[in-house]
Amino acid sequence: MSMNDIAQALTQHDCLAFIWKLVVWASIAYLLALGVLAFLRPASVNRFLDGYVTSKGINFLEAALRLVAGLAYMAVSPDMQLSALFFTFGAILAISAIPMMLLYETHKRYAAWAIPFAKRILPLMAVMSIALGALITWALI
Fold this sequence. Notes:
86% of the residues lie in helices and 0% in strands. By secondary structure, the protein is mostly helical. It has one domain.
């Protein structure tokens, strides 16, 4: 099954194509807001990061949002610049969401390392978040 076949299956109706594109725009807004807030209010971003994997319910929500975002990138990718890159990005997000949903304890152990690391490199994370948001915006318009 090709990238275009999968994208077509995800966008069989115009309404779905519109919704997937909205999800990609929402992810851009998230990345840009996260990047800007990391510079303007780093303590708030640190508290936000501390909220990851705090319960099975939060973990499931994170994974579900990751799955939806991944499917959205896969669906919208044929209409984007660098479509193979964004399809692959979406596939990685979507596929990695499944074990996140099912392996809460493993994800929690990983977060115990990843969250303090992210806090230490918060300015770099901010720049990368803004840059990724800008790249996705460029690819989408």
